[in-house]
Amino acid sequence: MKTMNIIFSAVLVLSVIIITQSIYVVSETERAVKLRFGEIVELDVQPGLHFKLPIVNTVRKFDARILTLDAAPQSYLTSEKKALTVDSFVKWRVSDVAKYFTTTGGDEERLKRLLIQRVDAGLRNEFGSRTVKEVVSGQRDELMDKLANQLNLIAKVELGIEVIDLRVKKIDLPPEVSESVYNRMRTERERLAKELRAQGNEVAERIRATADKDKTIILADAYREAEETKGNGDATSTSTYAKAYSKDPEFYDFTRSLKAYESTFSSKSDILLINPDSDFFKYLDKSKQD
Questions:
Q1: What phi and psi values does residue 280 have, to the nearest 5 degrees?
Q2: Which of 37, 87, 94, 139 sees the fewest Cβ atoms within 10 Å?
Q3: How many helices and strands in the chain, by DSSP H and E?
């Protein structure tokens, strides 16, 4: 009886082991291939619960999510033979499980080394055909999109992966190149500033000339109106005096003489040498007679 229990327990344990070795699960974030003695018998195992033959079949699983390859900074020469230190990264994921497995053996580190070689070659070719200004300025996005598309085509055929994106995080310039670029930028900004100042001075001169012209016109109009007003006033004054004089010439002469006396004898220190029989003393003489 004890022997039977031992045999039953051994069979039960063996059955559990066989069952556990025969069942495997592929999650939604994984891609897998099933092998039979190292040969692929199922290319792309779908997510879910699956069965296999222990010892005969093995299953290799790979991460199906978008992964990031952060490459080490590399130095590249531009068309001007100036060195740039470029720090880039690649977003990728497995697209062809069979190709990925046969090329890399499922080793992600080996895949990264192969992918870095192709990224390095692509960047070297593209940077070598462009100037520093083209690489640093607005052509960088166009360059990265072009390179990502080219790399994606190569990676799908050779490595069984899809390149989602390729971007440059940072471009460092050597000190001598940096100084040259900064000097060029400074010269360009100074040229632009001079152009803007010249345009501003031109506008200012035009405004000042217009203001001077308007000032001259306004002063001339004002002087003309003043002269016209003064002339009209003088004419009115003369007409008034003439009318008053024509009504009583004697009274007019008398008032003018009084004003003349007042202005002449306003200061006691003044000395006046004049003929006593002059018309100037006409009304004074009449006052003595009266």
A1: -65, -35
A2: 37
A3: 8, 9
What is the DSSP-derived secondary structure letter of residue 65? S
Sign, Cα dihedral of 226, 228, 232, 237: positive
SS3 221: helix
Yes or no: say if 52 and 73 are a contact pair by the CB < 8 Å rule. Answer: no
In eight-state DSSP terms, residue 86 is: E
Q: Name the CA radius of gyration of the chain, rounded.
A: 55
Q: Which long-range contacts (CB under 8 A, 24 or more apart) does 72-78 make?
A: 73/170, 73/172, 74/120, 74/123, 76/123, 76/124, 76/127, 76/128, 77/124, 77/127, 77/128, 78/127, 78/128, 78/130, 78/131, 78/132, 78/135
CB 87 within 8 A of CB 73: yes
Q: Give the Cα separation of 37 and 58 in Å (integer).
A: 8
All structural domains of the chain with their residue ranges: 2-63, 67-173, 195-247, 248-289
Digit-coded pLDDT (tens) for 125-144: 888 888 777 777 666 777 78
Name the token pair of 140.
Answer: 């960088």
Domain 67-173: CATH class, spelled out: alpha beta
Looking at residue 197, what is its pLDDT?
92
16 vs 22: CA distance, rounded Å: 10
Distance in angstroms (rounded) separating the CA atoms of residues 285 and 263: 19
Residue range 216-230: average pLDDT?
A: 89
- pTM for the full model? 0.52
